Recover the amino acids of this structure.
């Protein structure tokens, strides 16, 4: 049996005033309605950080300053296996505020709210790593 290939994706835990941004996936997409850390698929030959900057600009219309990388996560969904590259970031000083261009809604959550949030399955170990990292 052949193992499925890994789909490389990236995400950002965007910090602002002791809160982190989460985004609700469009209802018609895979995992529709679930909350996630924003990001997306990497293009061939694109680094995780380049992909993150591109995806955040496309999805949220803002720019980031990456402050740390968290350990990658491999997660298998029924249709695909992803390798998720998570980063901690802040909004760049000259950034526009995030807008929900490709999501249903955005929420800024504090650590307590984040720990209770219902996230997409691949983001759960990312959250655990973040809470440990930023403790």
């Amino acid at each position: 049996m052949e193992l499925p290939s890994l789909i490389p994706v990236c995400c950002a835990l965007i910090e602002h005033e002791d809160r982190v941004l989460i985004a609700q996936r469009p209802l018609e997409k895979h995992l529709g309605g679930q909350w996630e850390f924003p990001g997306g698929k990497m293009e061939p030959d694109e680094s995780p950080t380049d992909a993150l900057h591109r995806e955040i600009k496309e999805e949220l219309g803002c720019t980031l300053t990456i402050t740390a990388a968290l350990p990658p996560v491999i997660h298998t969904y029924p249709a695909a296996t992803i390798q998720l590259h998570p980063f901690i970031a802040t909004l760049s000083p000259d950034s526009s505020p995030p807008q929900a261009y490709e999501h249903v809604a955005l929420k800024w959550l504090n650590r307590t709210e984040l720990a209770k949030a219902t996230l997409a399955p691949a983001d759960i170990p990312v959250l655990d790593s973040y809470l440990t990292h930023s403790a």
Notes: The radius of gyration is 14 Å. The chain has a mean pLDDT of 92. The first strand starts at residue 6 and ends at 16. Strands lie at 6-16, 19-24, 35-36, 39-41, 64-69, 73-76, 81-91, 105-109.
